[in-house]
Design a protein that fits this description.
The chain is an alpha/beta fold and 249 residues long. Helices cover 49% and strands 17% of the residues. It has a single domain (2-248), classed as Rossmann fold. Helix 2 crosses helix 3 (87-95), helix 4 packs antiparallel against helix 7 and helix 5 (139-150) crosses helix 6 (155-164).
């Protein structure tokens, strides 16, 4: 994990944890630059992504520990917002195990609620590994397929990260998203949480059922017409406007 720190002179801190295949730079482009310079932004490049692309992703728990260590070392104990998308949401959830970090708001985009999904893990691992081999063999085709999901602007970087990623990292990421540990959260902490999904997101239906049982005091937003983490790149202005409204509510 490599942390990026922008606008370090600002008081209010936003932590942005990117989804699989994205990067800290992606969070800057699609979130921080649009919300603006009012906040200090901390954005990690998770292992196997961005500037940390050569590192092997071992586990969400390990990434959360490294983020926590960075926050503690730099005495950043209070944050305005914790934001995590997909894999980033799984890591953000693990970060809540540390009770010395205080979040005012928490926003989870497209986070998996699968907790013991052996068959989905098997299927997704096979799918991702096959797609990875095809992407390595034909980078242009990978960019084209990414474009159809996330737009032409985001696709080249997503494809680049996918091609550079090791099979071990892919296996570990898929595992962590199929075996998410859902830590107990107090009613007060749940009320700080918002879980958002596109209504076409493959994680949406499972999350809708699990959220009611696991975190009944948390909020849920549903983006009509969008798939997994798509609104972030396809409707940047509207997406960030909604996040700002959430922070200021």
């Amino acid at each position: 994990m490599i942390m990026h720190d922008w606008n370090s002179e600002k008081k209010d801190v936003i932590l942005l944890i990117h989804p699989m295949l994205s990067s800290a730079n992606g969070m800057k482009t699609y979130v921080a630059d649009i919300i603006g310079n009012e906040y200090r932004y901390l954005a990690p490049d998770l292992s196997a992504h961005g500037d940390a692309v050569k590192d092997t992703f071992k586990s969400a728990l390990e990434e959360a520990k490294q983020i926590h260590d960075y926050l503690g070392k730099n005495q950043i104990m209070k944050l305005k917002l914790g934001f995590g998308a997909s894999l980033g949401g799984v890591i953000l959830l693990q970060l809540l195990k540390y009770d010395d970090i205080q979040f005012e708001h928490l926003f989870f985009e497209g986070m998996s609620f699968y907790t013991n999904a052996k068959l989905p893990e098997l299927i997704l691992r096979s799918v991702f590994l096959k797609k990875h081999k095809k992407a390595v063999a034909d980078p242009a085709l990978s960019v084209k397929r990414m474009s159809s999901m996330f737009g032409t602007e985001a696709a080249p970087l997503l494809a680049k990260h996918f091609i550079a990623m090791s099979e071990e990292s892919i296996r570990n990421i898929v595992h962590d998203c199929a075996f998410v540990e859902l830590p107990p959260l107090s009613d007060m902490m749940q009320k700080k949480c918002m879980f958002a999904y596109g209504d076409k997101d493959f994680d949406y239906k499972k999350a809708r059922r699990m959220l009611r049982k696991t975190y009944p005091h948390a909020g849920m937003k549903v983006w009509g017409g969008y798939g997994h983490c798509e609104r972030m790149t396809k409707d940047q202005e509207g997406y960030c406007h909604d996040i700002e409204d959430y922070i200021r509510a």
